[in-house]
Amino acid sequence: MQDITDNDRASPLPELGALENHLGVAEQSLTRAVKPPPAVFLSYASGDTAAASRICASLRAAGIEVWFDQSELRGGDAWDAAIRRQIKQCALFMAVVSASAHARVEGYFRLEWKLAVDRSHFMAPDQRFILPVLIDSTPQTDERIPERFRETQWLSAPAGETTAAFIQRVLDLLSPQPVGTVSAEPAPAVRFGPPPVARLRARIDSLIGRELELNEVAELVRTHRAVTVLGPGGIGKTQCVLELARRISGEFADGVWFFDLVPMRKGAEWLQALGSVLAIPAADANELLTRVVSVLHGRRMLIVLDNCDRIAAEVGAIVIELLRGADTVKVLATSQAPLNFIGERVMRMPPLALPDAALADQQSLERIAATPAVEMLLTRIRSHQPAFQLTEANAASVSEICHRLDGMPLALELAAARFALLTPHQVLQRLEQRFRFLEQYGCSPEQQLLRWFSVFVQGWSVESAVDMAASLGHDPDAALEMLASLVNKSLVAVIPAMSAPRYRLLESVRSYACDALRSTDEETRAHEAHVAVVVKMCATADAAMLAGHAREQCEHLMHEHGNVAAALDYALDKKGDHAPALRIVGSLMLYVQMRSTFAEALKWCERALAGTEAVETRERGRALLCLGGATLHSATVGGGVLLDAARIAALTGDKWGDGYANGFYAMWLCNWGRSHLAGEPTALVERIAEELDDPILRGRAGLARGWIHLAGQNYASALTALRAVRDLGADLHQRHFIDMYIGISLFALGEYPAAAAQWLAALRGAAALFNARGIAGTCEGCGYISERAGKLQDAVRFLACAQKVRERTASPLFKFWVAHHDATEAALRAKLDPPEFEALWSTSRSMREEDIFNEVSERLQDFSAMGQWAN
């Protein structure tokens, strides 16, 4: 259904009057009562009408019934009632997702999405009802997309163009499917682009009065490769750059990547952050830069670096090397000082344009109101006083306020809040200095909480706000009232989302609040409270993951890396206290596994564990477990760490930790040629899983048992063990892992179509978790099947691409997988001329990974639909 709002109501035919509309409903009930409900309801924003029409036409051409408002609604129809009825009755709700839909904060299609989500809550968990269809490069984890949408598998139809696989998938969803089978639905398209932690911030408010500056910066970005926007704090650099980046994002096929440098103390930390989001393991600066450049070479992407101020020169030295090696990458930065490298173009952000003071009382009110500084002030005033109007009586005071504040956006934001209590003349009288407002706002507890909020890095959740306020003795209701008051005064900004919102301080407000905190005797208490908040947040997330809310918590924690790092820094560097650091990293074990953030996890774990060898607490055992899981590939580290984790867990009565550590240890033994020793720890996991009735531990035990059989080449037994635990627990990474090894078992048994379907399921899981290692495994599996099917060139390309990913991410194949890999590569070398093989291998390593990944998805789909063929 297209987007219908009060100002954008576009029916397929002109609307009729109320009486005619009522009669139209009666006629509809008579003429259409015998028509069965359509199978598919097509929902879309008005900007996507053309794409939706193409999707509808292709579905109908395949014999699929579609309810599409352009052809179903007639003049006189009660369209709202008709839409609600069809959503209640349809067999499949198809939602078109796009940048156009994302841009609409309000729209009737969002009500349609909500109605579909509400209906889905009454359905069985395996009932297939919601089907999002992506028509452009909008991220599938975008915060404006409902959580229910993000829990299901998507289809891709660029610009509304569908494929045979798309149509077949819809037909499959509309037909019954035996419970417990793995459908061969296509995996979502894999694109090279920023993960959630490196995406642009969502728009909070419209940008006012900066069109000239936006055009100037846009021209600089289009004609140069590195642009830095300079200006003092509070002048609006960040908001201008973010708005420009949103507007020109379509010009960068490989995405806009955003990094806030506020929490970083050295330029090398930004390089490490860039390497982390590219799934490149930690290394020294020169080696890491070389690897980053190799990944970004040929990429059309824009890197936005915000708040470079304190480390501008160090960041500049990295940027110039990056630009030299990756010749299509561009960088847009904000700073109070230039980054100082050859090729940098600088644009100095001016204050907002001011009204002409000399002619103020002679100008029309319309001209004064249209002046950028006045326009912004009036807009912000009306968020506190909706009825406020610029009049002949107050125009002079309003203009003078803008002049006295030099057109500085932040100062105008702060001044606007005073209009809730004072007249324009009274505000002007009290306007002595820009940040005087911070000292005068609200009561003392509110001022104190604002100062304490300054210790958060890159925002906080409402739960964290309540916990921080509790450290000051405030109950949750009081905390929420103060938070709302600070938001209303434009001191705290809301980061909008479809799920729970986050909050942050504007950087200039944060800088001022930090200075104010340092001037009191509260700084130590505030930082200690922040550490306690992070400890609780991580423990709560861990418990929620175990309770089945893995995806939700995983996305939440992706936005908390800055707070985790800041809490660890304070606990370890300032206080020398390892206890909270151990609690933090120990609670992140499941998150680390799901996100495969091994490089960052290693750094966190090693810092927290350093010097704690004599400590034998539950928290240290869990921290060792986190470290052991991240070093499973290591012959020298993983085993000893996991044994120590299991020992401490048993000593402290942590049965779950004991079971999980032993499960990991059994897998480590299998990988390093000691599967004959893995039976005992696996049996222990099985006993603990039964005692605790824990599905995640049952899944871990089944995975370990499957590995034992795989190591012994007993593939039928491996298949039985793995299939029995595939759907247990909420550990998405573990489920993806199990899919991978069911696939290799099926392949070894010669069941190639079934193996392809299973690896396709694994590819879906890997893409959902942004797990490049998992996607590489499916490339290898598809290469093995391609070789057996005689598609030799495809097989070489898939294996070459997978090897490139494994080298980049430092994740070699597990040992018992290697035999299948070596056999396939040997067969390819025997069947192809050496020069042809080497040329294919070399060429494939230079191809874009996402292109290979998407081809693998299509090939696995094709293979899964083929009849069985002989070895």
Q: Helical segment tally? A: 42
- Main sheet overview: 5 strands, parallel
Distance between termini?
Answer: 50 Å
What kind of oligomer do you see?
single chain
Strand content: 5-15%
Radius of gyration: 29 Å
What can you see in these coordinates?
- The structure is a single chain.
- The protein has 871 residues and is of the alpha/beta class.
- Helices cover 58% and strands 6% of the residues.
- It has 42 helices and 13 strands.
- The longest helix is centred in the middle third of the chain and has 24 residues.
- It is globular.
- The N terminus is likely disordered.
What can be said about this structure in brief?
By secondary structure, the chain is α/β, with parallel strands linked by helices. It is 58% helix and 6% strand.
Ordered list of secondary-structure elements with their pairings:
Blueprint lengths: L17 H14 L8 E4 L5 H13 L4 E2 L1 H4 L6 H11 L2 E6 L1 H5 L4 H13 L9 E5 L12 H4 L4 E2 L7 H11 L36 H13 L2 E5 L6 H12 L7 E5 L6 H11 L7 H12 L4 E6 L5 H14 L3 E7 L9 E4 L16 H6 L1 H10 L13 H10 L4 H10 L5 H6 L6 H5 L3 H10 L6 E2 H9 L5 H13 L3 E4 L6 E4 L1 H12 L4 H24 L3 H9 L2 H14 L3 H10 L1 H7 L2 H12 L8 H13 L7 H14 L3 H17 L7 H14 L2 H17 L3 H9 L8 H17 L3 H17 L3 H17 L3 H18 L5 H17 L2 H12 L3 H16 L7
Parallel strand pairs: 1-2, 1-3, 3-4, 4-5, 6-9, 6-10, 7-8, 8-9
Antiparallel strand pairs: 11-13, 12-13
Helix pairs in contact: 4-6, 9-10, 11-12, 11-13, 12-13, 15-17, 20-22, 20-23, 21-22, 21-24, 24-25, 24-26, 24-27, 26-27, 27-29, 27-30, 28-30, 29-30, 30-31, 30-32, 31-32, 32-33, 32-34, 33-34, 34-35, 34-36, 35-36, 36-37, 36-38, 37-38, 37-42, 38-39, 38-40, 38-42, 39-41, 39-42
